[in-house]
Amino acid sequence: MGDPQDSQQPTRSALASTWPNPPPFFEDFTEEKLEQFRQFVESQPKAGDQSENAPVARIPNIPTDLINLQPPAEPEDGKWRVFGDQYTLDDKLPTLEEQGMPKLGAESASQDEQGKEGKHQDRAFELKRLAKSLLLNFLELLGILSIDPAQAEEKANDLRTLFINFHHVLNEYRPHQARESTIALMQEHLDRTRAETAAIRESVDRTKRVIEGLGSIEISERPESAWVMRGKEKEEVKEGGQKRETEVWAAADELIL
């Protein structure tokens, strides 16, 4: 009988591959089983706490053929594995020692201390130092490959360690990068708001000046009698025109007759 660990090794390798196959329990998600699971859930008594913050209640005594249809429980230790990689609810950058890699250079402060002491560390200087070490070790690797390629494995491992340390220093700098990016974004938003406010105030001032200019125009006020006399003049002109037209037509009639 084979070792169970040996039988699980292909499965772990398949999950950790670049394009992993779907998990074997996807075949259980058929329309028939989904309907059976829905009916089974509806037949169960409702839990007392139905609030949004309440933990998802697990259904006990679920049939074996429907057990894969129930969502898994939340990890008690806050850790889970996806495609062979382990993740945690507490998104914290693991140290190189926790990853089993040697730390090159000065010890970096913990994340709790990065706000006070970590800011004093010159990460740019450390990145330059690692970059120079990478170039030097790469030249040494080329020299070893030209003489005895069989001895190049150790130097290749040194390059791998340098690259991992370089990448780790960059990841330690991510919080500062995110903070500076947020500051720049907020400053841009503030400048845009100030510019819009200044444009609105300028429009208001210009409108006020136009209104004040219109208010300063003097309109000559005529007495009411003047408007009455003007109306009478129009009526007299109209009556005179009608009278003249009547006289013209009368003279024309006399000539014709």
Structure description:
The protein has 257 residues and is mostly helical. Among the domains are: 19-69, no CATH class; 119-208. 57% of the residues lie in helices and 3% in strands. It contains 6 helices and 2 strands. The protein has helices at 4-15, 31-43, 123-147, 152-172, 174-215, 224-256; strands at residues 79-82, 85-88. The protein has a two-stranded antiparallel ribbon with strand order 1-2. A hairpin with a 2-residue loop joins β1 and β2. α3 (123-147) runs antiparallel to α4 (152-172). The longest helix has 42 residues, at 174-215.
Number of helices: 6
Proportion of helical residues? 55-70%
Q: How is the main sheet built?
A: 2 strands, antiparallel
Q: What do the pLDDT scores average to?
A: 77
Order of helices and strands: HHEEHHHH
What percent strand?
under 5%
The neighbouring-strand order within the major sheet is 1-2
- First-residue to last-residue Cα separation: 145 Å
Q: Which shape, going by the Cα principal axes? A: elongated
Q: So what's the oligomer here?
A: single chain
Structural class determined from secondary elements: mainly alpha
Q: Segments where pLDDT lies below 50 for 5+ residues? A: 1-8, 108-118
Radius of gyration: 45 Å
Count of individual beta strands: 2
